[in-house]
Each structure stands twice: as structure tokens, then as C-alpha cells.
Amino acid sequence: MSEISITEGLGWMGVVFYVSSYLLLSTGKLKANSYLFHLLNILGALGLITDSAYENDKPNLAVNSIWLLIGLWAIGKRFYSESNRRNGR
Asked: How far is 10 from 50, CA to CA, in rounded Å?
């Protein structure tokens, strides 16, 4: 398998993760604050970041990098909040 097909494959996997997270959210199978929703979005962002970096597609690279940071922030915020609740803060 060539490098081009690997990066493109990762990009397509990113699309599948993004679309799956939106479908599951829209059908009520996931909640917007669930870890799985954010994980699927993070994986989607990583796949599309890989492909857009290889293709030098700067707008796609920018939006997916921002999407990745939002997902990481959301998971961190939820984890921190749950940790505080467990510790009685």
C-alpha cells in the first residue's frame, strides 16, 4: 500500500467517525456530552488532519485542528468535573 492510499484511507476513516458521531447524536443514541461522542469527533479530526496535512489543504487542516482541540477540551472539562464531584469539591 502506498503512502498516498494510507493517508487517503485515514481521511476516509475520519469522515466515517465524523458522520457516525453526528448520526448517533441525531438519532438519540449518543448525548452531546458523552465521552464516545467526543472520542468519535477526535478520531475524525485526526484522520482528516492527516490527509489534509499530506495534501497541504490548509483550510481543512485548520478546521479539523480546531475541531480536535474542542473535542480534547470537552473531554478534559468533563473528566475534571467528574473528578471534582468524586472528591467532594
From this structure: 7
pLDDT tens digits, residue range 44-60? 999 999 999 999 999 99
Looking at residue 3, what is its pLDDT? 60
Structural domains in the chain (count): 1
Distance CA 14, CA 58 (A): 17
Residue 51 near residue 10, CB atoms below 8 Å: yes
CB atoms within 10 A of CB 64: 25
Domain that holds residue 62: 3-86
CB-based contacts of 51, cutoff 8 Å, min separation 6: 7, 8, 10, 11, 14, 57, 60
User: pTM for the full model?
Assistant: 0.88
